[in-house]
Please model this.
Amino acid sequence: METRRIPGTVIAKRTTRVYSLHGIILQVTSDTSLPEQVLDAIFHYFGWYGPLLEPSPEVDIELVVVHTHQEVPSLHTTCPIVEYNGVVFQRGLQALSVTWEDTRLYVDVPAQKIWAYLPPDKWADVSQLTIEHLISLMHGVLVLVRKLGFFPLHAAAVAQGEDAVLFCGPKGSGKTTMAYALVQQGMRFLSDDSILLEPEDTTVYVRPLRRYFAFTTEDMQKLERVRAAFQIGARSKWYVDVSMLYEGQEAERAIPVVLIFPEIVQRERSRLLPLSSEEAMQRLIGQAGLLSLPPDLATKHLHVLSQLVRQVDAYSLEAGQDVYGHPDVLESFIEPLLSTSTKHKCHDSGQIHTRQSGRMYRA
Amino acid sequence: MIQVKYTPASQVVCTVLDEHEAVLLHLETKHYYVLNETGTLIWECLQKGEPLHVIAAALAQEYHIDKDEALQDVVQFLDMLSQEHLVERKDISLHTNPSIRKAS
Model:
């Protein structure tokens, strides 16, 4: 048996507070991520880093690499069990086991310890896991997350009171820029990239996934307050904790009432265009990562998206140069939407009424 | 006699969008479809495993149209869904092979 500590990667990521459970998972899909990131996701799931990822005292996580799979502890009572793409998750009260092929991982939460059996013919240690294994593992985690009733969406979110505005779109569509501008104007921050939708009775709530702004070096150079807090060097992304810049402006959970699909355009003036439910739904599906799910979970995820669409007013925002560096201009677009949106409260929707009155037979 | 039966394809997931519209998503082709009110009604019947004549009757009752016209529309619509691999068509033979049983 070989015992190691893995402070260099996992602990560094925890203390820099870069990753959250789902943030990592989303990143694994587009990057050749390190196995430590996947382990990190598991740690977050169990709350080792605190539910809000608050800074916590340095805690080493012990990795015990064993030479036979019998040496890996096993769970006696498990709930729930998830099996997908050959990855099996078993969840105990204070532990999680992950099994795929001959590999065994057992995560003991109170002991802050991981046992691992890694077949020597496949890889000598954790660092030699292949991206295929990570993707399989990621799929398993994605299934697990949804089975627990949380549905990831690639979107930024900010809140005013209990009401949230979501900015949903692909990489480079302006999610971070929009979210940061509104936080500058006093709105509360949930996430700039990854959120969880949490259906509860008749309402869909939004919770943050990644809780850090991920700025590019170009962003950093534009944003005076951020620039002042960091010494900017050559890095692809800068992870900035919003509480360092705007203390007390973080939100835990809110109710989405406005859904915006931003797009950066090379025009002076921005335009905000209402979207139909169909158009909103189509765009949401593209950012929800549900196509690789088994049909039962894809259906649940789809239901949550349609519930969200019914709950919000949806818009396309063609973001021109007027909103860049002028958060007040963006706020002038968003503020009226929040004050007029009552859809989630009294289900007042002109579109729905129109369709009811225009009900007709069309085969 | 052959009876035609349509069932939703296993890789197709559906959700109701507004009160009268539904979204279909094919997880393999990754295509997305929006059904109007009538299409939604037909899809809901398919999910319940209803045969064609029952679907047509439901449509005729809902929209006060002739049953034959409704059946024609249903068949046309389902053929369209079949071409998009959203439903699976099965031809069920109602014909019974001739047999003989010795009476005691």
In short: The radius of gyration of chain B is 17 Å.
